[in-house]
User: Fold Large ribosomal subunit protein eL20 from Oncorhynchus kisutch.
Amino acid sequence: MKQTEYKVVGRLLPSVKNPTPPLYRMRIFAPNHVVAKSRFWYFVSQLRKMKKANGETVYCGLVHEKTPLKVKNFGIWLRYDSRSGTHNMYREYRDLTTSAAVTQCYRDMGARHRARAHSIHIMKVQEIAANKCRRPAIKQFHVGQLTSYIIHPRTVLCYGTGSDCSLLRYRVRLFSATVPGQTVLCYGTGSDCSLLRYRVRLFSATVPGLGQTVLCYGTGSRSDCSLLRYRV
Assistant:
């Protein structure tokens, strides 16, 4: 389950003996605010002489990432309970946000160590520099030039906005096939055009008012491009 970072603040209920009890703040990773409050009182009851019955939650809010578009290295210190005992562990992950790195950690711990989510206690999460990383799986991304090869190159027809095909809304693998009576442009899977998901009839038309020629497919008149379903 996806984890989200919360900041939870709580305190004891005011009394005559202690009218202004101190506030306790905790950084909690949980799937929602209900679980975040529950985890807060679980940890606070172990650290201080207070519990939910004689306390109150002052604040519970989301913590947003300051630079969500920058790839960062995260070090996570955690403790979890296994079938044989309690273990401390340090793990490293590479992601855009702290919440995403913690989500990776929960899924990784469940897959590699059969650790349940309720038995994993995140003690510390910190962004670390590249020269401080220890794990080879993370250090392999710190080289100067990273290249990724296209194993199956293919020519696609793109439409949308932008010059880069990866920024377009759709990428379509195209090839021609013959349908009884006409040749159409097909995309999908299979060698027989009748097995393809789509059969597209393409022709050029002029967009009214814009004065440009576009590639159209669908139904409608060739002269009126506004009646077509798609303009590519």
Remarks:
- The longest helix spans residues 98-113.
- The longest strand covers residues 72-81.
